[in-house]
Amino acid sequence: MREKALQSNGKHGRMLTVENGWLECPSCRRNRRVMQIRPDTEGRNIVAFCRVCKTEHIVDIVKGECFESYGQ
User: Is the pLDDT of residue 37 over 60?
Assistant: First the structure.
């Protein structure tokens, strides 16, 4: 199952791609296993690091859906 959306949600930032329970890197899209996300996972301001493009992203996770965090 592939979930993908590029529109903004009012309360959260841009929705990120979660495929087969794994967060895909929003920058390079080559690393499809940045972080494992379960359907009941929740968290704020979590740092996700991509080993391929060496970037860090701060994400918010709400009920298994990942969003880019707006700030610190």
Answer: yes
